[in-house]
Amino acid sequence: MHAAGxxxxxxxxxxxxVAAVLGWAAGRGIEILGIADELERLDCLAVGxxxxxxxxxxxxxVSLGGDGTMLRAMRLADGQRAPVLxxxxxxxxxxxEVDVPDLPRALSAIDGHEFTVEPRLAVDARLGERTVTAxxxxxxxxxxxxxxxxxxxxxxxxxxxxxAADAVVVATPTxxxxxxxxxxxxxxxxxxxxxxxxxxxxHSAYSRGVVLSVHDVVALEVLPSSGRLAVEVDGQVAxxxxxxxxxxxxxxxxxxxxxxxxxxxxYQRARRKLRLTDSAEIPPG
Length: 285
What we know:
Elements: E1 3-8, H1 15-26, E2 31-35, H2 36-39, E3 47-49, H3 51-57, E4 60-65, H4 67-77, E5 84-88, E6 98-99, H5 103-111, E7 116-127, E8 130-134, E9 137-142, E10 149-155, E11 158-165, E12 167-171, H6 179-182, E13 194-200, E14 210-213, E15 217-222, E16 229-233, E17 236-241, E18 246-260, H7 266-273
Parallel strand pairs: 1-2, 1-4, 2-3, 4-5, 5-6
Antiparallel strand pairs: 7-8, 7-18, 9-12, 9-16, 10-11, 10-15, 12-13, 13-14, 15-18, 16-17
Helix pairs in contact: 1-5
């Protein structure tokens, strides 16, 4: 490893984690990079660069924060060689691999090539003349006072299902534990290549979600009776669409890679962090 890049949470105190990375790198001749605007609030020796440079120059991206920071790091790593190590500074941290005390040991393992990577699927959404990328989900969401989301899902040019709902969520397997999960969608292993379409609070005749192939071209068509809808990309509003407009979606497998050190499996993390229980389990006693 020649260079590692830091991606910082915009508000949480990351000073201890940054110091751990710099201390580990000091005796190894490894350059530590960070986005210049983010480093301004820290007194540290990391080299400030632009977001584009961070993605292209780093051999590893280290995300210091929660899942939102991890998603941003994955977007910076999109199409680059650097995998992303998630360091949890939050509460849930579903995508993170290590906590701050374990960070030096994790970096040494990565430097010694003692790790694996999970390819993560992205979904590109065409909004007018621009394309936006999500690693969790793209959702069309009702705007309060503007009526329901009444949306047809088209697959490879053919209408498949229609929903009347508060929102329609198109999620990657990574995003299956986020908005889609809260709307009743299935938990899906990140090793599965698929898109999950889940209605939130549906009130239409058909109210089940669907699972689509990554080879399908998917479009969300806003029907004439729909209200104006916000388009949320990984939880951030990217624009608005109205009746008669269509959002085209295309899955892109392997867009980014996440570091795994073999500490836990996806299913262990899901059970612990989502506090899953089985209704058939008998309490000990």
